[in-house]
Amino acid sequence: MNNRRDFLKHAGALALGGMLVSNGTVNAFYRKPKYATGLQLFTLFTIIDKDVRGNLAKVASIGYKEVESAFSMKGGYYGMKPKEFAALTREMGLGWKSHHVLGAPVKGLPAGMRTLKDNYQELVDEAAEGGIPYLVCAMSPTGTTAEVKETIDILNKTAEATHKAGIQFAYHNHYHEFELVDGKTPYDIMLAETDPQKMKFELDLCWVTKSGVDPVELFKKHPGRFPLWHVKDLDATKTKPEPVGTGIVDFKRIFAAANTAGMKHFFVEHDMPADPIASISTSFENLQKIIG
């Protein structure tokens, strides 16, 4: 009887394995990770424009599956039109999921850089042309009550346009959005004065940690509003970003709350590392140990 039961169990397993192999889902059934690891290409800002194709090939070879694009000194999308860049990322086996744009002009950034304040419809139209599901405001001034009001107006205006285009709009934080302005934090005002469906948030885990705000508590207070994350670490002095797994950010605890956050995609980022490829390699390796 035992031999018969063992035989039937093995036969059933082999049959299931055969079905999985035949329909191409064996890897998905056994080995597919819960989340695809993405990269914010601003991490490669100092090198990507020199060889866009070559650098994207390196990103893919490390194991990254998705990318979020950002400003390029070559203009456009690393010197390309949206459809051209979309085709290149597909060729590299990378899913282009999101693009960063500026809200209102910020001091110190390159002259002539397009912003949502002045070019929101153009930027939304390009995102739609590229076929990306998310458009993200990378930053916008929030140092005064007037700046907060202007930023909120820009966000709501853009959110309406992205909604009509079938794109999800989001806002990416630094730490200054969590500093009080006339008794309130700009981030709380953004959450309260934008439409929860049309306006989501890309939480930068490094900067929110630097601000002293607990991201898990933020998720609990506003469930489902954080479909995108920037995954980067913070050094022990809380002064500069570091590769993932080399600083103080509690990624295990934060990833355990991913469902509450509504997280769909995350992007590794490291602002201006000395060696971008070494940094993203370290982050990728450590992330596999942290989240599997």
TrEMBL record:
Transmembrane segments annotated in the record for this chain: none
SUPFAM superfamilies assigned to the protein according to its UniProt record, in alphabetical order: Xylose isomerase-like
Domain of life: Bacteria
Alphabetical list of InterPro entries matching this protein: IolE/XylAMocC-like (IPR050312), TAT_signal (IPR006311), TAT_signal_bac_arc (IPR019546), Xyl_isomerase-like_sf (IPR036237), Xyl_isomerase-like_TIM-brl (IPR013022)
A Pfam family this chain is assigned to: AP_endonuc_2
Residue ranges constituting the Xylose isomerase-like TIM barrel domain according to the UniProt record: 56-281
UniProt name for this protein: Secreted protein
